[in-house]
């Protein structure tokens, strides 16, 4: 998979993409992540990418030209008026107006060979970008951040870790449990007793059937307590 990220803050991405699982995935050749500076496509020597809004009003609006030019240059094909239909690429824009991301969506994005992520500042983007350049608008929650950079990083992290081969099978089991609309069960490690606090006997019993049952029940109880909405979702699915 290739992920192209367009941003006016390329340096924000480097430390995050250069560590841990995302770094490992790139080193293994399972994903290629390219960062592009939107200002390089400004079309003017001042590298200005925004202008005041037609009709007046506060704040600046992101101009269409740099965004169209950046995407067209990255993909090597025209966005408008000659956009290819049924392309196996997807252009995602991060905005609080987008669909709130859940694990199921992340899984759906795996089918694309190539994703272009536009991480812009929220103040305003020219509507023609929204209509003719963007395929999907994504939000990471009902709160407003100062830009789409952090949402883009959240998206990349969630996506890259489910690319087959990126994390070990032990970790993927945990992931599946979230897909079941259940939160994770409690974990314990050494020592068996810490300041008088004991590890539940069942986990030390060696009885794998019993342990599995205990974990299932605890996962259900925890989900019911912390996220009753997930239990409701699960009920509707069955
Ligand atoms: N840009 C600003 N806030 C955002 C959010 N909550 N999700 C996605 N993009 C954003």
Shape: elongated
Number of domains: 2
The CATH superfamily of the largest domain is SPOUT methyltransferase, trefoil knot domain
How much helical structure, as a percent, in the residues?
40-55%
Average of pLDDT: 92
Number of helical segments with 4 or more residues: 10
| CATH level-two architecture of the largest domain | 3-Layer(aba) Sandwich
> How would you spell out the order of helices and strands?
EHHEEEHEHEHEHHEEHHH
Q: If strands are numbered along the chain, what order do they take across the biggest sheet?
A: 2-1-6-5-7
Low-confidence stretches: none
Spatial separation of the terminal alpha carbons: 33 Å
User: What CATH first level of the largest domain would be assigned?
Assistant: Alpha Beta
Give a structural overview.
Helices cover 41% and strands 18% of the residues. It folds into two domains: 159 residues, 3-Layer(aba) Sandwich (Alpha/beta knot), CATH 3.40.1280; 63 residues, Trp Operon Repressor, Chain A, CATH 1.10.1270. It is built from ten helices and nine strands. It is α/β, with parallel strands linked by helices and 238 residues long. Strand 3 and strand 4 form a beta hairpin. The strands form three sheets. The chain has a five-stranded parallel sheet with strand order 2-1-6-5-7, with helices on both faces. The chain has a two-stranded antiparallel sheet with strand order 3-4. It binds adenine. The site of adenine has 12 residues, from strand 5.
Topology record:
Elements: E1 2-7, H1 10-17, H2 20-27, E2 32-37, E3 50-52, E4 60-62, H3 64-75, E5 89-100, H4 103-109, E6 114-119, H5 127-132, E7 136-139, H6 149-160, H7 169-179, E8 193-194, E9 197-198, H8 201-204, H9 208-226, H10 228-237
Parallel strand pairs: 1-2, 1-6, 5-6, 5-7
Antiparallel strand pairs: 3-4, 8-9
């Amino acid at each position: 998979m290739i992920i192209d990220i367009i941003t006016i803050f390329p340096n924000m991405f480097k430390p995050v993409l250069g560590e841990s699982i995302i770094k490992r995935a790139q080193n293994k050749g399972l994903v290629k992540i390219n960062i592009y500076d939107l200002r390089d496509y400004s079309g003017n020597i001042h590298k200005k990418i925004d202008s005041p809004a037609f009709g007046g009003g506060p704040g600046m609006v992101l101009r269409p030209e740099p965004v169209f030019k950046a995407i067209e240059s990255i993909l090597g094909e025209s966005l408008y008026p000659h956009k290819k239909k049924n392309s196996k690429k997807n252009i995602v824009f991060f905005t609080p107006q987008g669909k709130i991301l859940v694990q199921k969506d992340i899984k759906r994005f795996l089918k694309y060979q190539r994703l272009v992520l536009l991480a812009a500042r929220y103040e305003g983007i020219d509507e023609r970008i929204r209509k003719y350049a963007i395929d999907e608008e994504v939000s990471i929650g009902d709160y407003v951040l100062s830009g789409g950079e952090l949402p883009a990083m959240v998206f990349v992290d969630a996506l890259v870790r489910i690319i087959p081969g990126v994390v070990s099978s032990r970790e993927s089991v945990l992931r599946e449990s979230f897909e079941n609309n259940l939160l994770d069960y409690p974990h314990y490690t050494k020592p068996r007793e810490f300041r008088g606090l004991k590890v539940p006997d069942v986990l030390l019993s060696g009885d794998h059937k019993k342990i599995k049952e205990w974990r299932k029940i605890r996962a259900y109880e925890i989900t019911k307590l912390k996220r009753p909405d997930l239990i409701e979702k699960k009920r509707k699915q069955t």
